[in-house]
Every structure is written in C-alpha cells, then in structure tokens.
Design goal:
The protein is α/β, with parallel strands linked by helices. It has ten helices and twelve strands. The chain folds into two domains: 9-114 and 244-282, 3-Layer(aba) Sandwich (D-Maltodextrin-Binding Protein, domain 2); 116-243, 3-Layer(aba) Sandwich (D-Maltodextrin-Binding Protein, domain 2), CATH 3.40.190.
C-alpha cells in the first residue's frame, strides 16, 4: 500500500496550525485584563469588579487604590495606551480631558459619572454651610478668618490639592486657575494627605471627591454649599456647584472584552448601588466619545 506523504503532511500541518491558533485564542482569553488610574474612579471599578468579571468572562486586575503611589489620571492614560492583543488594558480618570489631549494621544473616552467635589472641614468646626461665594472667597484668600463666615475667631488653614493643572474641570469648578488660589496655603500631593491635614488642623478647609471612604473614625465634616448637600440629585438640578467627571479611557483598538467591562460600568444594574453610596450622577453612555 502506497502512502501519499504530501497530502498527509499537509493535513497534519493544517491540524497543527488550527491547534496553535485555538491555543493562542484560549491563552489570550485567559490573560488578565488590567485597568489603572485615579483612585476616585478606581473605587467605582473595584466596587463592581465581580460584576465586571462576570460580564466579560475575564479576570481583571485593578490599580489605583493608593493615591499616594501616583496611580492618577496620567497613569490611567498611560495604561490605556499599552493595550495590545494578549495584553489588554484600559484606564480610568477623574478629570475631563480636553479634545486636544484626546486627539493628540489618540484616546477614546467613555463617560461614567459626575462626582461631587466635597468641601471639607475639621469635625470640631461649628460651620456647617458656606455659600458658593464664600467658598471661592476662602480659596482666593479674600476670607481668611472663620469669624467672617459665622465661625470661631480662628485663621483659616487652606489645604489644596491642585492636580492635573492643564486639564479642565475638577477643582477648577471652584476657581478656574491655580494662580487664583491664595498663596498662603498647605499643598498636598494626595487625597490621603488632604484628609490627614484637614483632620489635623481644627481650622482647616479642603476639598476632595465624594468617593473617598473617610471611615467611621474620621475627623472630617462635609459642608453643604448654598444650603445644598453634595448629592447626585443636587448635581442633576445644578444646585450643587462643585464636581468632576469620572471616565474610562482606551486606545483606539479596545477588545470586545474591554468594551464589555466598560459597558457594564456604564449601564449595568450594579452601578446603581455604587452611585447611591457615593452620590454619583450617572452619565448617559456613548460608545466612545471625546469630551
């Protein structure tokens, strides 16, 4: 019996190629999807991690818990741009990005929610409400003593974290430029430092996003502004004036699994519990947008 070697070898090669492709696809699907970025957006993704893994069928690794380690908006963008087949990544940011930055870096942006920027003081401070004008006056240095706004006769210690200075939004809803903030202030580099300093000084005032978990033993008090609490409903009605935009970002070729993760955050039912807990105003999802 003659054996036709050429057709046999061709058949074996085809089988091996199919196994190789199938194996690579399985290996890619088993690879971890990595997300990283700003702490305040990380809170949202981390709270939904189990739901995101179920929706995408993938294991997810998230970075951004410790804001002192520099996992901020820049790290989120850098991580998003590292996306490639077999190494799927996305980022998350707590600041809106300008169209120029989005275009130059070739990003896609997926809006998630508006987050109130809280005005915080030490728990010992008797003041519980400030007007928008008073908050801005304190930030500018026009108001320097608590007695000017109904508090004790104590100098105001301003604690500021003016991050992402070239980006719109965030603390710029209070004052539009870092140069407008009073020069005599205590600058901090992380949200954790903000909480620490405001808790340390009973006459301090600072600002921080609503997704920060203060803990039950916190020495921080959140003020109302113009008589309105920093809630999603008051953001919706434009009663509360200070906020920032949380978004996910990818490069221009995200995988279907990465998109499934982001869509689950944007539209999945589990987000509602997170939104209620942190007073987030959910935004209408676009498939991918520039600001």
């Amino acid at each position: 019996m003659k054996i036709k070697l050429v057709p046999l070898l061709r058949s074996c090669a085809a089988v091996l190629l199919l196994l190789s492709v199938t194996g690579r696809a399985a290996a890619d699907h088993d690879a971890i999807v990595t997300g990283a970025g700003a702490h305040f957006a990380w809170v949202v993704f981390n709270s939904l991690k189990a739901d995101l893994e179920k929706a995408s069928g993938r294991s997810i690794e998230l970075h951004g818990r410790n804001s002192t380690l520099g996992m901020g908006c820049n790290a989120g963008i850098k991580t998003a741009l590292q996306n490639a087949p077999g190494h799927e990544t996305f980022g998350f940011v707590c600041c809106p990005l300008s169209k120029e930055e989005v275009d130059n870096k070739k990003l896609l942006v997926y809006p998630i929610a508006l987050e109130p920027v809280l005005i915080v003081v030490n728990r010992a401070n008797p003041v519980s409400n400030l007007s928008t004008a008073q908050v801005r006056g304190i930030m500018r240095g026009d108001i320097v003593n608590w007695k000017e706004v109904g508090g004790n006769d104590e100098p105001i210690v301003l604690v500021a974290r003016l991050h992402c200075k070239k980006r719109p939004g965030h603390w710029k809803t209070i004052l539009p430029d870092a140069a407008e903030f009073r020069q005599k202030r205590l600058n901090v580099s992380s949200a954790a430092d903000m909480v620490q300093r405001v808790g340390d000084f009973k006459s301090a005032l600072g600002h921080i996003g609503s997704t920060w978990d203060f803990g039950s033993d916190s020495n921080i008090k959140v003020l109302s502004v113009d008589g309105y609490q920093p809630t999603a409903e008051n953001l919706r009605n434009r009663h509360y004036p200070f906020f920032r935009k949380l978004s996910a970002v990818t490069n221009q070729t995200p995988s279907e699994d990465v998109l499934a993760i982001i869509r689950e955050v944007q539209t999945g039912p589990a987000f509602q519990a997170v939104a209620v807990r942190y007073n987030l105003l959910q935004l209408e999802p676009d498939s991918a947008t520039t600001p």
